[in-house]
Amino acid sequence: QVQLVESGGGLVQVGGSLKLSCVMSGRDSSADTMGWYRKAPDGGSDVVGMISGCGITTYRESVKGRFTIPRDNTNNTVFLTMNRLKPEDTGVYYCKDVTIHTYGQGTQVTVSS
Q: Residue 68's beta-bridge partner residues?
């Protein structure tokens, strides 16, 4: 059974940093496109960024220069490093294996001012 488990969320002040992790089990995800998504408090959901199997990354405009998505294929893990956090970054962050359309359960990130 394929499973994605996120961790690393929490409460952080404006300008702070967090590093989220997403570990996949049950499948070798090294060739898959992986994405991070955010569900905002108002219920809206958007893509934060993605990394392809060959390491090409794309990001939504609002996080460019602040967020990165590295991956560790040896440990079947994708990360979301978030710097200079803003209140509007608050939400539940999900990782998704885009290739097989599978989501994790999400981890809460709250940025307080």
A: 81
